[in-house]
């Protein structure tokens, strides 16, 4: 696995890199977010691994990476005592997974592999469609009425679940399990926030709302008016 490691502390950088090397991963280190953006523009990575600092601008690197077009999954290493609302803020900023320090590398390895498995898709039919929305699973591209729509990895997985179940309702539990790999409900508004962002991107330039909220049940791809 090709991993971009964004870590400015040399001691922490050396420890994490050595552990990843021992697990057989290929690691490129970036010392700041500009360095990371440059690396992402010149090389294909499976994911970016960041160390999140509990400061007021601790999520700024994630936001800048996403703003600069970073489409790979982002995995955050966080400090101890991360509250549910803090975890939700990380996910809302653009992270796809978090792991609290201290951690065992065997758990980090399993979580990294799980995140990449959720992102990589092997299918016989590489295209999913529902109404005017089309998803190319191999190219990771989304179009609505032929218009390309740029999504972050978690938004892509969220839309994929909605399109795969276009004839039914996708519940909150289904989304937590299949998009974020939660085996429990963390009681945050991460789903609502991500749905809102996804809906805004899908609806830009269209009158018909692409996503319907089914009160008390979940969400589904909206049927077009006739």
What is the secondary structure topology, with strand pairs?
Blueprint: E1 2-6, H1 10-22, E2 26-30, H2 33-42, E3 47-51, H3 60-67, E4 74-78, H4 84-93, E5 97-100, H5 105-119, E6 127-130, E7 133-136, E8 141-144, E9 147-149, H6 153-164, H7 172-178, H8 190-203, E10 211-214, E11 218-221
Parallel strand pairs: 1-2, 1-3, 3-4, 4-5
Antiparallel strand pairs: 6-7, 7-8, 8-9, 10-11
Helix pairs in contact: 6-8
Describe this structure as you would to a colleague.
The chain is an alpha/beta fold and 226 residues long. The chain folds into 2 domains: 118 residues, Rossmann fold (3-Layer(aba) Sandwich), CATH 3.40.50; 95 residues, Arc Repressor Mutant, subunit A. 39% of the residues lie in helices and 21% in strands. It contains 8 helices and 11 strands. The chain has a 5-stranded parallel sheet, sandwiched between helices. A 4-stranded antiparallel sheet has the order 6-7-8-9, covered by helices on one side. α6 packs across α8. The longest helix is centred in the middle third of the chain and has 15 residues. It is globular, with a radius of gyration of 18 Å. The protein starts with a strand and ends in a 5-residue tail after the last strand.
């Amino acid at each position: 696995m090709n991993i971009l490691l964004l870590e400015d502390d040399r001691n922490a950088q050396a420890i994490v890199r050595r552990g990843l090397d021992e697990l057989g991963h290929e690691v490129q280190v970036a010392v700041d977010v500009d360095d990371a953006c440059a690396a992402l523009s010149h090389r294909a990575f499976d994911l970016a691994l960041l160390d999140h600092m509990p400061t007021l601008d601790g999520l700024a690197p994630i936001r800048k990476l996403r703003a600069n077009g970073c489409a790979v999954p982002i995995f955050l290493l966080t400090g101890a005592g991360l509250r549910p609302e803090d975890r939700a803020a990380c996910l809302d900023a653009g992270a796809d997974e978090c792991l609290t320090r201290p951690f065992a590398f065997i758990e980090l390895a399993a979580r990294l592999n799980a995140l990449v498995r959720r992102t990589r898709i092997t299918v016989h039919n590489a295209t999913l469609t529902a109404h005017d929305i089309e998803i190319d699973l191999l190219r990771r591209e989304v179009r609505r009425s032929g218009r390309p729509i740029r999504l972050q990895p978690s938004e892509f997985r969220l839309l994929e679940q909605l399109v795969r179940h276009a004839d039914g309702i996708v519940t909150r539990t289904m989304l937590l399990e299949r998009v974020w790999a939660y085996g429990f409900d963390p009681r945050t508004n991460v789903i609502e926030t991500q749905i809102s962002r996804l809906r805004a991107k899908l609806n830009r330039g269209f009158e018909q709302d692409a996503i319907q909220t089914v009160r008390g049940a979940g969400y589904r791809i909206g049927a077009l008016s006739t």
